Structures are given as structure tokens and as C-alpha cells.
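Worked Example 4.2. Consider the chain below.
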Amino acid sequence: MDHVLIESLGLWESSVNYRTGRHVVFNLHVHLVFVTKYRRDVLSEPAIDDLRSIFSKVCGDFEAELVECDGEDDHVHLLITYPPKVALSKLVNSLKGVSSRRLREQRPEITGRYREGVLWSPSYFAASCGGAPLSVIADYVKSQRETASGHSHIPPRPKGRGIQ
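Applying the procedure from the previous section yields the following C-alpha cells:
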């Protein structure tokens, strides 16, 4: 898609960095939170710095980008931009698996805290973010059915054969 088409559709905002693929223009962000197993306090500042570089490399493998990463002793927050072809669950599984393995290799003090060598709780938090508020999008979607005069663009339903 070219930028002129996007602007004509009213989708372009100069302050937003849209990414493009072969047939898509997108701006997808997700906020992820991973919690350590049993909420154990095992993540020091140097460990979180190591995680930041690990997460960044994994994101690169998925053509995604780690925008922000920080956390506390028992959890980390990530803000990621990702392409629409990426299944979020696969990205999360890779982020958690690779980071668990590599961090335990780099930081032996973490390995001793877990019997089975698992760093992360199996659950995670994910929230989409960025773009317009839901109320603005809902108004935009509703306005697609109405013209300036207030009439619907949709033709009336055909009568007969049980369709009312």
C-alpha cells in the first residue's frame, strides 16, 4: 500500500511510525508481563539488563522490535511492536523459552533457585496498546454506515424466502 492511499483513507497520522510489509501497513504493539515461577525474587538489575538484550534478539528473529523492557525482582514488562504475520503466542513462547535458557546459562545464581530449571511462570499478561481509544474506533466504525445526510449506504434487505 502506498502512503497516498493510506492518507486518502484517513488512516495516516504523522506522529505514528507505521511499518510496512509487502501487502500491509501496520502499527501493532503489545504490552507483555512475565512473572517468575512462584514469584521468586531472582531478577537483579544486571539480570534484567541481560534479559533486555536476549528479548531484543528474539524479537529480531520474529521481525518484531523490543521498544521497552524493564521490571522488578519477580517480573518484567515488555513493549513490543510486531508484524501481523506473527502469532503472539508463538512470540511469547519463544521469548520465555529462550530467555529462561540463556539467562540461566549466564547467571548460575538463578539456576540454583529452581529445581527443574524453569524461570517463568507458565502464564503471562498481554494487552494490545497504541492507536486510538476504543470509543474513537467504535465511532469511526459506526460512521461507515452513514452518509453526510444520515442515510445508510447499505441497501435494504431483499424480501421473500424468510428474510425480513
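The mean pLDDT is 82. The chain is about 35% helix and 25% strand. Compare this with Example 4.1 before moving on.
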